[in-house]
Write a structure and sequence with these properties.
This protein folds into 2 domains: 38 residues, no CATH class; 144 residues, no CATH class. Helix 4 packs across helix 5 and helix 5 crosses helix 9. 19% of the residues are buried. The strands form 3 sheets. Strands 1-2 form a two-stranded antiparallel ribbon. A two-stranded parallel sheet has the order 3-6. A two-stranded antiparallel ribbon has the order 4-5. Helices cover 41% and strands 10% of the residues. A hairpin with a 6-residue loop joins strand 4 and strand 5. By secondary structure, it is of the alpha+beta class. It starts with 6 loop residues before the first helix and ends in an 11-residue tail after the last helix.
Length: 193
């Protein structure tokens, strides 16, 4: 019998395995297969879990002594993951002139029937990222209106990425955490193919 396993799935299993299972997998497939799986700030695709982000950043894994709400814990984890995905060389800075573009994972809620009725191009659009231009994305998420001036920063900068590709990865790889952070009486279904 021949069994084929995608390398990315094998590396994800390795990243989530305990030490004994990692040793077994290394003896079965060789250590070289898993060297790329070690989380690093030099390759955002090695950040596959919250724990990977902590390891790459050299930070401890968050332990909740105060029983915070799940959506707050999810947000804290997403912020840590976002910093790890930024990598070693990207230093996000506020841009008062609005000349920089940052990307944010974009999610839409659809019923199963609505998705089934979509053509492949429409389904593909569901997995895109949202461009946030310059000052439109602040370090917080603020909205001041009906005063002498109008300012809005509807997307928290700390969850933005510098490329569309990274934002898409951030949304897809960590969909369960995003759902925990954003959800209100809905569940996450299977990913579209």
């Amino acid at each position: 019998m021949k069994v084929e396993i995608e390398e990315s799935k094998l590396q994800t299993a390795y990243a989530n395995a305990c030490d004994g299972v990692k040793d077994f997998m290394e003896s079965l497939f060789g250590k070289k297969v898993f060297e790329a799986a070690k989380p690093t700030l030099d390759d955002y695709k090695t950040i596959r879990t919250y724990e990977d982000a902590c390891k790459a950043l050299g930070e401890p894994i968050f332990e909740d002594p105060n029983n915070l709400p799940n959506h707050i814990i999810a947000l804290m984890k997403l912020e840590t993951i976002s910093r790890a995905l930024w990598g070693r060389n990207f230093q996000p800075k506020p841009d008062g002139e609005g000349s920089k573009v940052y990307w944010y994972p974009w999610f839409a809620l659809w019923t199963k029937k609505e998705v089934e009725d979509m053509n492949p191009e429409q389904r593909g659009a569901l997995l895109s990222a949202y461009a946030v231009c310059g000052a439109f994305a602040g370090f917080g998420c603020l909205h001041a209106g009906y005063r002498s001036s109008y300012a809005i920063a509807p997307v928290g900068f700390r969850l933005c990425q510098e490329t569309e590709e990274k934002a898409k990865y951030f949304g897809q790889q960590f969909i369960e955490l995003w759902a925990e952070y954003l959800k209100f009486n809905f569940t996450v279904g299977n990913r579209l193919k």
